[in-house]
Amino acid sequence: MNTEQEIKEMVKEKYGAIANQSKTQNQSSCCGSECGCFDVDFSIVAEDYKNLPGYVADADLALGCGLPTEFAQIKKADTVVDLGSGAGNDCFIARSIVGETGQVIGIDMTEAMIEKAKSNAAKLGFKNVEFRLGDIENMPIEDGTADVVVSNCVLNLVPDKRKAFAETYRILKSGGHFSISDIVLQGELPDDLRNEAVLYAGCISGAVQREEYLSIIKEAGFMDIAVQKERRINIPNEILLQYVSLEQLREFRKNHVGIFSITVYAEKP
């Protein structure tokens, strides 16, 4: 498996390319970029944002795996932090809830994404939405800043998930909470699939087991942990066969190994 730094550089490269494409282009490939891997509608992972208040089409790159803002219990005047904010989609939806008296901060480690998000915010004239270049494992945010943290299909890309959740705990106010959509597994993926860098960038191979994911959240100090929504991700056989043998695929299907999108809620005491 690649080192943590190699994984980060690969993710930055892929998502830098994604930032310069349209939603339509991103939906036509596995990892949202022109990676030459396979042609598939990325909607097998993504969910539709179009009917949510605050939706901005230019900020929707079809990269999520849930709708965390829909479950995040955001209130007017809250400070919301979005981890892996991309082009700003979840930030703009959160902003429609917090209103003029609230604040929304997006964090992303990809410069091209930050530039695109800032451009989108400037076009909209938003003064209380800002985007910061930074690493989720070492966030450029002061302790106790956020009332609510959201994230959409991003923490699975972070090599050190324990550190990411520890940082999430640090930036939340006492009594604050998060709602995070992410990809998790039930059962073990074949090694060839788990180690494939392209699928790592596509959110799959960076995922951990569901119970391990929830355990990491608990270890970070969170309480009242609840899975708000769960959905199986069905990856077509023609995609899987590019990374595993037919025999491995049969074992994969027979053993009912599952790839799931979950939206998780938890509170900081």
Strand and helix map with partners:
Layout: H1 4-19, H2 23-27, H3 68-71, E1 79-83, H4 89-98, E2 103-108, H5 111-124, E3 129-133, E4 146-152, H6 161-171, E5 172-186, H7 191-194, H8 197-201, E6 208-209, H9 210-219, E7 223-232, H10 237-240, H11 246-254, E8 258-267
Parallel strand pairs: 1-2, 1-4, 2-3, 4-5, 5-6
Antiparallel strand pairs: 5-8, 7-8
Helix pairs in contact: 1-5, 6-9
Report on this structure:
It is a single chain. The chain is α/β, with parallel strands linked by helices and 269 residues long. It has a single domain (4-267), classed as Vaccinia Virus protein VP39 (Rossmann fold, 3-Layer(aba) Sandwich), CATH 3.40.50. 34% of the residues lie in helices and 22% in strands. It has eleven helices and eight strands. It has helices at residues 4-19, 23-27, 68-71, 89-98, 111-124, 161-171, 191-194, 197-201, 210-219, 237-240, 246-254, and strands at residues 79-83, 103-108, 129-133, 146-152, 172-186, 208-209, 223-232, 258-267. Strands 1, 2, 3, 4, 5, 6, 7 and 8 form an eight-stranded mixed beta sheet that branches. Strand 2, helix 5 and strand 3 (129-133) form a beta-alpha-beta unit. Helix 1 (4-19) packs parallel to helix 5 and helix 6 (161-171) crosses helix 9. The longest helix is centred in the N-terminal third of the chain and has 16 residues, at 4-19. The radius of gyration is 18 Å and the shape is globular. Mean pLDDT is 83; it is low at 25-42.
Please provide a brief summary of the model:
This protein has 269 residues and is α/β, with parallel strands linked by helices.
